[in-house]
Amino acid sequence: MKPAIFEHERMSSIDDVVQALANADGEVRVLGGGQSIGPMMNLRLAQPDKVLDLSRVEGLDGISEAGDRLSIGARVTHARIEDGEVPGTTGAYMQFVASGISYRSVRNRGTIGGSVAHADPAADWPTALLALGGEVKVVGSGGEKSIPLDGFQVGPFTTGLGWDEVLIGFDLPALGPNTKWGYYKVNRKPGEFADAIGAVIIGNEARAVCGATESAPFRVFDIEEKLSGGATELSVADAREILSGHDAGFDDYELQIHAVALSRAIGRAFA
Amino acid sequence: MSDLTININGEHVTANVEPRLSLADFIRDHQRLTGTHLGCEHGVCGACTVLMNGEPVRSCITFAVVADGTEITTIEGFDDDEPMAQLRQAFHENHALQCGYCTPGMLVAARDIVTRLPDADEDRVRLELAGNLCRCTGYVGIVKAILSVLEQRCS
Ligand SMILES: Cc1cc2nc3c(=O)[nH]c(=O)nc-3n(C[C@H](O)[C@H](O)[C@H](O)COP(=O)(O)OP(=O)(O)OC[C@H]3O[C@@H](n4cnc5c(N)ncnc54)[C@H](O)[C@@H]3O)c2cc1C
Ligand code: FES
Ligand code: FES
Q1: How far apart are CA B133 and CA B105, in angstroms?
Q2: How big, in percent rounded to 5, are the helix, strand and coil portions of chain B?
Q3: What is the 3-state secondary structure (H, E, C) of B27-87?
Q4: Which ligand has an atom closest to residue B145 CA?
Q5: Closest by CA position to B24, among listed A32, A44, A76, A1
Q6: Of A47, A155, A261, B115, which is most buried by a Cβ count within 10 Å?
Q7: In chain B, which residues have their Cβ closer than 8 Å to the Cβ of A57?
């Protein structure tokens, strides 16, 4: 249960990180809160040659609102979001999600950027943020760019982030006060990774996401259509029917818990 | 090897350590503060919980080098701490420990609950304790102890 030998480099700026990534020799990993890579290194599932520690890099901790957009830095911790630092309706939704992620002592270190970059299929932020929509902000050798959250995660532990890029934050919609949201995580113990997640947001547009799948979370357009058409509930049987039309590789039990998660998320949105 | 300066329990410590050394092993093996326990070493059981700049963290999945420049409080460092004194007494009175393996982490997590969530009820206390496993007590005594301290601190 001890990590393999690696080098640790403390980064002092984003430019530093980009340069270090560009000059990488061997496997180089960015270190966020260390709450996913730490366990993986202890178990030797990950054996990077070098880690680039983000903890002293400035400009990754911000939370700000401008008009109908919210900007959230990559290194904002789950605990800060749980404590309500993100304003408005988006903040209330994110607060709910954050409080169900792991335990306080993990939330104090784990970051939203690390979670999305890590792209564990069972993690909360990849699903929760896909339901919000918006963009991931990254910087690499080619400069800064934004990548839509739609399609950012392409598979288990796989995203659109290039090997020489670092995630610096998110550009998210500031939801209006009348926007409805619902999030339901199926797990056997509070704080555990999810077996299934349903996430819905019904505002100017309706978005419904099926998460904690075998691969990336996906939007369920048939459910979004129903919600846009004014539906305020969805039976588990209907959700099952719709989900079985998706090629998600669910067995009967998985189909059921994902249908339950979506049905209950909608129930919560209109409760 | 990396240089490291940490304040542990009020004492200034400098060291030169391997990057792969966990904060937990630094505390236990290098500083000989063996009150911090290791159970799972991958963030699940909570036995290794310590305070880093006043907030509970898992010392098994925090590298010692990452803790450079921070203030760490381990179970040995709460002698003059009022909530911890109240919790120790309450754990004693409510049979909140048996073998004691989970207890250091449990007390650090409990201190976080009574200071951060003064209005917590039983359900909330149980929810917050989800990250600290105890194989002996069945949690009943631990929950009672924490609730009794919450009550004391309210009045
Ligand atoms: C016991 C336990 C239970 C947990 N339960 C849950 C849960 O229920 N739900 C959940 O969602 N999560 C859970 N987690 C994971 C936790 O939320 C992590 O904090 C999170 O997944 C990773 O964030 P981090 O900042 O710690 O990233 P790290 O562990 O530091 O990094 C993870 C990966 O992302 C990369 N990375 C990190 N930051 C960046 C960046 N800025 N740019 C590019 N790449 C980056 C790293 O190179 C690494 O590959 C749990 C963790 C533990 C230990
Ligand atoms: S030893 Fe750190 S959480 Fe189990
Ligand atoms: S007292 Fe033995 S594990 Fe908790």
Answers
A1: 9
A2: 45, 15, 40
A3: HHHHCCCCCCCCCCCCCCCCCCEEEECCEEEEHHHCEHHHHCCCEEECHHHCCCCHHHHHH
A4: 3
A5: A1
A6: A261
A7: none
User: Could you tell which of B136, B139, B142 is best to mutate to test the pocket of ligand 3, judged by most ligand atoms within 8 Å of the CB?
Assistant: B136
From the CB of B28, is ligand 2 less than 6 Å away?
no
Domain around A100? 63-173
Pair A200, A249 in one domain: yes
Of all protein residues, the one whose alpha carbon is nearest to atom 11 of ligand 1 is: A123
The pLDDT of residue B124 is above 90: yes
What is the residue type of A164? Answer: D
Q: Is residue A1 part of a domain?
A: no
The reported pLDDT for the residue numbered B1 is: 87
Instruction: Report residues whose beta carbon is within 6 angstroms of any ligand 1 atom.
Output: A 29-39, 54, 74, 101-102, 106, 110-111, 113-115, 117-118, 123-125, 161, 166-167, 191-193; B 43-44
Check pLDDT > 90 for residue B155.
no
Residue-level pLDDT at A191: 94
Domain count, chain A: 3
CATH number at residue A13: 3.30.43.10
B53 touches chain A (CB under 8 A): no
ipTM for the predicted complex comes to 0.97
Q: Tell me, what's the pLDDT at B67?
A: 97
Residues of chain A with pLDDT under 50: none
Give the per-residue pLDDT at A1.
Answer: 79
Task: Tell me the residue length of chain B.
Answer: 155
